[in-house]
Write a structure and sequence with these properties.
Largest sheet: 6 strands, antiparallel
Radius of gyration: 15 Å
Number of strands: 6
Number of helices: 3
Helix content: 10-25%
Order of helices and strands: HHEEHEEEE
Structural class: alpha+beta
């Protein structure tokens, strides 16, 4: 079992979620925060649709990025920042469904990088199908980052 370096990791992850305007605009909602793991859901809205009526691949990759990022934040020290260094997304099926379910997990937590994976499921009439998998490297930055929140 992975242990967080931050005893208040749930509050820290929630703080980062609350500051994410892009996530709010998409309508993505985190439903589970554990040490090294997050889950979330996104109901299908017209703004998520690509030209053929499916979830857009950019929406799917964004969910992968956020799921991996927040899983990484759950293990980082309070005050540390998480940035995506690289990510590979494999699209396995069309994104057809009433909603997407995202699962992100830290596979290996290092001092400077966390290696993460995400899975995206499309749910339609209570049936879930795996539609995408991602692997990502997340940098853990402890220096003060000059952002508008002063973290």
């Amino acid at each position: 079992m992975i242990k967080s370096r931050n005893p208040r990791f749930r509050e820290y992850v929630q703080l980062k979620i609350d500051r994410n305007e892009f996530m709010r605009t998409l309508g993505f909602r985190i439903t589970l925060i554990e040490a090294g793991k997050v889950e979330g859901e996104l109901p299908f809205l017209k703004i998520h649709e690509q030209q053929n009526g499916y979830f857009h691949g950019g929406v799917i990759s964004s969910l992968c990025d956020m799921a991996c990022g927040y899983a990484a934040y759950s293990l980082a020290e309070e005050g540390a920042q998480v940035f995506t260094v690289e990510m590979k997304v494999s699209y396995l099926r069309k994104g057809i469904g009433e909603r997407l379910l995202a699962k992100g997990a830290v596979i290996k937590a290092g001092n400077n990088f966390h290696f993460c994976e995400a899975e995206i499921f499309a749910e339609n009439k209570s049936e879930q199908k795996l539609i995408a998998k991602a692997s990502a490297t997340m940098a853990i930055v402890r220096e003060k980052v000059n952002d508008k929140y002063g973290d």
